[in-house]
Amino acid sequence: MNSLCDLDKKELITRLRRIEGQVRGLQRMVDEEKYCVDILHQINAVQGGLKKVGLKILDKHVHGCVQRAVKNEEGDEIIDELMDVLAKFTD
Predict the structure, then answer these.
(1) pLDDT reading at 1 higher than 60
(2) I need a labelling partner for 25 at 20 to 30 A (CA). Which of 58, 75, 79, 82 fits?
């Protein structure tokens, strides 16, 4: 299995760098004592960005790694792993 399940690495890195910039912006906002509601809006944007990255990876995992494992009759183990990840992802 590929570690990123054939995900476009460049796209993933671009998204994560954007999120990294948002987090740096959050640090600056706190340091500059910006309005609390503005900080909360930015936190929500960071969480949304991370969720989108996670869902993109999850989609590629299911349609790549999981699908291949099922075809190779190794589905039970990878489905159990997927369910464990989903349980943590939705907490």
Answers:
(1) no
(2) 58
